[in-house]
Amino acid sequence: MTGQAAAITIRPRPYAGPIKNPLKGFRPDIPAPFGGSGKGLYDHEFTTVTRHYIRWFEIENSQGDGVEKILAFCDSHWSKLAQHNIKVIPLVMLFWPPDHNFWPSDLEYGDYTSPRFLSRVERLIEHMGRAWDKDPRVLYIRTGLVGPCGEQWNPTPPPELMKVMGDAYTACFPNKLCLNRYPWHFQDYRFGIAWDSWGCHKDTARTLGEIETPRMAGRWKTAVMGGEIPYGFGDPPGRNPNDSLTDPHHLAWIECLARRIHQNNLGWVSEYDQSLPQVRAGADRLQKAFGWRFELEQATYSARAEPGGRLDVELAIRNTGSSPFYYNWPVEVALLEPASRQAVWRGTFEGLDIRAWLPGDQWMQWAAWDDRHKHYVLDDGPARYAIAPKTYFARGSFLLPGSLARGRYILAVAILDPAGMLPSARFAVVNYFAGGGCPLGIVGVGQDVDQPGLDESVFDDPRTDDSLHYVP
After folding, report:
1. What is the pLDDT of residue 2?
2. In this predicted model, what pLDDT tens digit does every residue of 328-356 receive, in sequence order?
3. Most C-beta atoms within 10 A of its C-beta, which of 13, 54, 102, 295?
4. What is the pLDDT of residue 5?
5. Using omega within 30 degrees of 0 as the cis cutoff, is the peptide bond preceding 33 cis?
6. b/e sequence 203-212, b meaning 16+ C-beta within 10 Å
7. What are the chain's domains?
8. Which bin fits 368, alpha (ψ -120 to 50), beta or left (φ > 0)?
9. What angle in degrees, to the nearest 10, is found between the helix axes of 159-172 and 115-132?
10. pTM
11. SS3 call for 366
12. d(Cα 293, Cα 323) in Å, to the nearest integer?
């Protein structure tokens, strides 16, 4: 603290349950003729991330099609995302098994190597970048395009195509993070991984081994780990989503692997039955493990400030989830009129980058495959990170307007979505006001405050607040 001698320290009580927070969690699909039932998109208790399978010819069917066609297609399918605080991961594909082909009318089916095809790939990615790189509805980008469902196998992208795609995605999406299917592809690019056979016996050893090589170690700090549990293929952890979330062996294995590789979002398992209490209990556990989870351990702030004077605020935050928050959203400090809870003043921390609020690393518990029981069995290692999550600090000294009326105000903080500068990402504490704010205590402006604390009875439950949204 830099200003007034008197300061108040608040230690909010952690919120015990899961929270529906953006940029993480269970990931259903947008309804599509191929690849998405839409189950759980708008009625899921945790959905803020979705994927959209897009057929190439839907956004470009000939060389004469431009960016306008992409924009029109997306506007027709994504019109409700912002009001539900959901962001999309688009995946453009050319093929859906066994025999559904989505090639543009003026390209030859199966041609992945000709100069004409390579040029069109580069052109399409350029157009997608112009349409999506600054679109707040778009969260991450699946590089896709090649193979069944855009999963980049059968065929594997040839080296020349991999270079064209890698260079184009890097150049055309400076503001979005990209993911490719296999960690042994696109080795010259720092993309995240979309593991579409997540956690199954067939792929885990090789995929995990590659993710943890020196080349990729620490990649998770700046690149997203996503994917889906492949029910019906390769011994997945569970026969179906409900089984994954109720069988103790499957549930423990999923959380263990998620924390070890720093899982941000996971699909297909999202289609669980929300009416079953035991299933929901398993989902609660995983929602807390997926992605980021910011616990506000302590807040220290000026007990009194003057109109035209300084208000000092310091926050101590610990990320108890499994991944970073991958975009640098601003953190707001606000003074609220107590009765209406309306802000009379707002400011944001300068020079703060919340992407640096990392979780722990090197999850110590692990598992071996039990062939007799057909699931992974956890060892006796402790269920914690060998490198524990650090406490990070946000510090700011804010100049209040001279016109600010003297009185008692509630000091609140919030993480804002830049798309509209609205509160969106919630701290995992009980201090919560509907609409996204985290109330800390009372500040006196031009007067002293005898009782700075807030009674928990005035707080709202973040789990039941579905009001958060952004401006598309």
Report:
1. 47
2. 999 999 999 999 999 999 999 999 999 99
3. 54
4. 52
5. no
6. bbeebeebbe
7. 7-14+293-359+387-464 (2.60.40.770), 25-289 (3.20.20)
8. beta
9. 20
10. 0.96
11. coil
12. 8
